[in-house]
Amino acid sequence: MIQKSVVRSGESEIIQSQNVTNAGKINSRVLISQSFEAAEPFQGVAFLMGTFGEKQHGILQVKIIEQQTGKTVFNKSYNTSTFEDNKYFCFASEQEIDVHEPTMYEVLITGKLVQPGLGTTIWCSEDDQYEKGILKINGEEQSGDLCFGIVHDYKETMGWGIFARRCEIILLIAFFFVLHCFIDIKKLYEFVYQNRVWIAIALFIFCVANKFNGSSVSQYDNYIQPGEGSEYVSPLFGTSRSIRSDEWLVSVPRSLSAEYTDYGKMNDIVRATETTNLSASGLYLNYSALAKPADWGYYLFGSEYGISFVWSFRMIFGFLFSFELCMIISKKKKLLSVMGGTVIWFSSFNMWWSTVTWLIAGQAAIVFFYYFVREKRLAKRLFFGAGIAISAANFVVDLYPAWQVPAGYVYLALLIWIIIDNRDCLKNYRIKDWMLAGGFFVFMISIIGMYLYNYMDYMTAIMNTVYPGGRTYYGGFSIDKLCGYLISLTTPYTDFTNPSEMGCFYGLFPFSVIVFAYALIQKKGKNLLMWCLLIPAVIMGFYCIIPLPHTIAKLTLLTFSMPKRVVDVLGYLNVLMLVAALSELREVKRMKLPVGIIFAGISTGMAFVYAYGYCDRKIKLAFLMIITLLTFILEICLVSDVNWQKKNASQAVIAGIAVITGLSVNPLTCGLDAIYSKPVAKEIKKIVENNPKAKWIGVDSIITPDYLIACGARTYNSTNYIPNMEFWEKLDPLKKNEEVYNRYAHICITLTEEETEAELVNTDYIQLDLNYEDLSKFDVDYILSVDELKSADENGLHNVYSEYGMYIYEISKKKLLRKS
Questions:
Q1: By the 8 A CB rule, do 106 and 1 touch?
Q2: In whole angstroms, what is the distance from residue 53 CA to residue 494 CA?
Q3: Mean pLDDT, range 639-647, rounded to an integer
């Protein structure tokens, strides 16, 4: 059944918004009441809901009564699964409640048939923020008040746009499964295999045309005028992830800022200071843009289609390259390659990091190189050669050595194996063949050189920062993460503090190592690929177990990385080793069933023990036990002497687990309406259009500064990916606090009457309490705030916009200068 989307819209007059605590889980044993005064007709109330990051099924009963007469003026039930975490939900109807004079009302909330779990709640304050009303829980008066508002101009419309797009996707998937009933399965999948590139291209075009992306930009609807905007402020499927702030809060706004500069050389929107666009946004339309093919959509189609281009390109072709690499390693074993490709690309590691460049670019370069060496037709060699140059350049210019260095070991090992394994092909190369290869090598170097030249200001600045520039690691104590593959499968469905760092590959460690050793022994050591993979595995394994001597760590370049990043790449290598080993097991004697049971038991037992420490709730433990048992059975089937149907089924099930859990991590979103359709976005753009050189700051939040640059406003305290030293030197000319601000950082500005002070709250978070008078030190024209500034007028700030909990102030510089 396809659930229709109801779009609830209305203007909420927010009465109390201080969300310090919550009212606790709402169920049938809890009755919450909040009294309030209404002086004019209204249609209901809006509450700031909390779901603890989880969907929960049940019923919430909401009733509004007039206190004096006891008359019920509103009574309606709501499914708790429709609530979103940290968003206002309108409990209202289109029928207006008549009010002719100030009248006291009381809203009553209780739960019915609420399933077990953390539960649905409502945010509230700790102290009395609303003097006219009283909050009671089960008849007991509380010290605070609910976060609520009175709803006017309420309407319910059918979200046909979201409904239609959901139908598109569901029908497309259903059509594929229906084909299994009418076409021989072997012929169907052979057709898919033979036409995989064309199918991938068609799917890519479909996704971009519909503006589908996997970004968590819907998070903005939690902070910027919640519930306002178009129906597309929410995802089509899945849940936007607040933990992915590096993506939706940093990367996306910076990329969007480039469109306002026409993707030119310089960008003065990010940090409100002129820097190269390549460092500010990652986008610059010149020769260096060849290094990042996933970004070409921005230059061709603009931001909304551009972000879809990025996500669709990475998700579709990233899997295709993972599959192709496994096909090479497994000697064309298709089902095994599907298993390997899905385990790699749809891993919780790759999905929680919003797909990583070193995976898609490195694998693409190796695949293109393999086919370039073996191909004889000129047209295809030209295509493969260009693919090598662009993909290898993409890998190099990613400029995150923590992953690049260990990944470089893996790809170098594969490169050496391909060269040795195809030495007969290379012996037949003529001068024109070597000239062609040399030409593509020069092409690759030229792309890298141009990119690094345009990126030089960033590289110079970041190396001189305290964080992240001043970091050196020598390894040790991270190998246990390889056992995290069981618990990582649960991260999309249950709450964890930092699921991104928990993400890993479903590589079945240490079972994979046992199988690898067994296969190598059975082959009597006669397998060049396995030896090539073993060497980087040993180097990285030692680095992840114990700290290396400083000289060795420097010689291996692993000082540019860190243990928790090297172990990620080791997990990837572990999957490649498993694919290579399982491929060889088809040609050698398999393990006896009792032996397979013992090794599978040891492996899953270690993974279960590792995961058990994360199980702080029964639901997590239950999920873990199911996954552990299933994995135990799958491991037995993979290596033991059982029939081939069971072996093939086990590979298909592993692929299915990887796809389902991987796709559950990120939401499926349509466009960028969570940013652009907000009323405040339209006002910001209007101001920017009239005054494009105006400079802004966002206050009392780290969300508003980056939201501003997404709307084209030049903003001082947008995420300082490199420190804006010109800004800081005006506050600290003697550089006494350089340790605080000389770093990558989110900057939360709070305006105060007290002395200006900067505090390092976290490694990448600065709290700047800025005295009103110090605003005169900067050429600031506008301020965006999530709260009404009480001292605005006397400090030269004029309110020019106030709607749905967002405020824009224009600075009267004459008044500010007189005051200072």
A1: no
A2: 8
A3: 87
